[in-house]
Write a structure and sequence with these properties.
By secondary structure, the protein is an alpha+beta fold. It has seven helices and eleven strands.
């Protein structure tokens, strides 16, 4: 008979060389991941609907119920309180004196945790996603007309790599901090000792800045972008956004045939070219 694998909450206590694994008493019957993105709408007169622009990702959250029971040790006088088990979880929301914050955690149960297959080779889920992306880009190009067509098509090899490029974001555990815990005690001994409990736990994703930079491998000057010009926006501002300096605005002006950078049309599509050397393409 296969031995049941218990879910654990791994605790990275401040100042300790090794993490502590807290094993749940009973595995959860279900858990829920929630991840959202913040999307801004760009209003352009004359279009059927606003353009959608990604702003940033939002923190992912894992919620689950954990069950605890100490009735096997008896229910009468001298019964063992279920808080001997629940406090192992409850303590994780408390502030560590040396860290000035609750400890960093990791929820681990199976190597097939949601997110463990992100970035698989095209041909399965990632391949289907790449094909969908290609269709969406083609539709958008046709609808937007020649203004977007100037940006060129996305190479097939880039689409094929769209899923594979996400491989750094795979996970087999969920690094997090304990955001909230709600304790519900449902059975008591004659002396009032709690014997059964359900803990509703919310775990909030925890990633350092360096973790995110290593995962995302974000790039800017080495790829072509299409930018929708906003009211009052200058070419120098566009240059700063994509090249991290306003000094290369002339490359954008040259690419788009802009002769007077002070006379720009809000809502116009600008191609932001690749820079291989400072100020050149």
């Amino acid at each position: 008979m296969t031995q049941l694998k218990k879910a654990i909450i791994r605790v990275y206590w401040e100042g300790r060389s090794k993490p502590e694994d807290i094993e749940v008493q009973y595995n959860p019957t279900e858990y829920t991941f929630e991840k959202q993105n913040q999307i801004a709408e760009i209003q352009i007169p004359g279009l059927d609907s606003p353009l959608q622009q990604f702003v940033r990702g939002q923190t992912e959250k894992l919620t689950l119920d954990l069950y605890f029971d100490t009735t096997e040790q008896g229910t009468g006088a001298g019964a063992t309180s279920v808080t001997t088990e629940t406090d192992k979880i409850y303590q994780l929301i408390k502030i560590e004196p040396t860290r000035h914050a609750p400890p960093i955690l990791e929820f681990v149960w199976s190597s097939q945790l949601a997110g463990s297959n992100v970035g698989n080779a095209p041909g399965s889920v990632a391949g289907a996603a790449s094909q969908s992306i290609g269709s969406a880009i083609g539709s958008a190009t046709g609808a937007a007309g020649s203004a977007i067509a100037a940006a060129g098509s996305v190479p097939g090899s880039a689409l094929a790599a769209a899923g594979a490029g996400l491989g750094n974001q795979r996970r087999t555990g969920f690094h997090c901090v304990l955001e909230s815990v709600r304790q519900k005690f449902t059975m008591f001994s004659p002396d009032g000792v709690p014997l059964r409990a359900t803990l509703t736990v919310a775990l909030r994703e925890y990633k350092t800045l360096q973790n995110q930079l290593d995962e995302l491998h974000l790039s800017s000057p080495d790829r072509t972008h299409v930018h929708v010009l906003q009211q009052g926006e200058t070419l120098a501002a566009v240059s700063r956004r994509y090249y991290e300096t306003p000094a290369d605005w002339r490359a954008i002006a040259s690419e788009n045939g802009v002769f007077d950078p002070r006379r720009l049309t809000p809502g116009a599509f600008l191609e932001v070219p690749v820079l291989t050397l400072r100020g050149s393409r």
